[in-house]
Amino acid sequence: MTRFKQRPSPALIVSCVALFVALSGSAYAVSKVQTQDIARQAVTSSKIDGKAVKGGKIAGGSVKGGKIQAGAVKAGKIDAGAVSTEEIAGTTRGVALAGATVDPTGVVTQWFNRFGGAPTVANTAAGRYTVTVPGLAGSFTGKLIASATLASGPGGEIAAAVDAGGNPGVFTWNSAGTLTNRTFQIVIYEGSNVG
Question: Does the pLDDT at position 141 exceed 60?
Fold first, then answer.
């Protein structure tokens, strides 16, 4: 093997460095693929590694309900506090539509209503109450479920039902079975005959 007897000239070194930089620059440019360089439907889920796309790589608001496969998101995959009542439709079955705490005279002391407006309660006779919830009556006639609980005081009984007009009624009794005014809480849900 023959060896060079002379050192390479500075011009040769500079030209080699320039050639290396020029070639690596084009290689760098080739490695940068932009969105417009990819044909539509060229990248499908079968071509993406199972753990390649994570939350930080997805643009905010780009994944909505229609893009999520049914059953893909389970309770264990949702962070605590990530979904509040504002994100749940008022017509979602199983979600409380309205509720109130009512004193023995029919005064509402606490309430919520997904349709807006404070519920009102009429104490029509001893132990008999009619609850009116703005935006509720007539909207869900025949599909409402009312659940009531005695909120304080001595033992007794309570029952709740929804009349034909969609207004919940509550009945309260003392331990002897006599209709008596009592403090109670009521929560109203949408029901369904199909689940």
Answer: no
Residue 130's CB: how many other CB atoms inside 10 A?
16
Q: Which two tokens stand for residue 168?
A: 């919940």
Are 119 and 98 in contact by the 8 Å Cβ rule? The answer is yes
List helix spans (H) across the chain.
10-31
Polymer length of the chain: 195
**126, 108 contact by CB (below 8 A):** no
Model confidence pLDDT, tens digit, residues 3-47: 766 777 777 777 877 777 777 665 565 667 777 778 887 777 777
Residues paired with 148 in a beta bridge: 186
Q: What angle do CA 167, 85, 118 make, to 5 degrees?
A: 40
Q: Who's near 137: CB < 8 A, 6+ residues apart?
A: 165, 166, 167
Task: Retrieve residue 125's tokens.
Answer: 């006779």
Torsions phi, psi of 100, nearest 5?
Answer: -160, 155
pTM of the model as a whole = 0.57
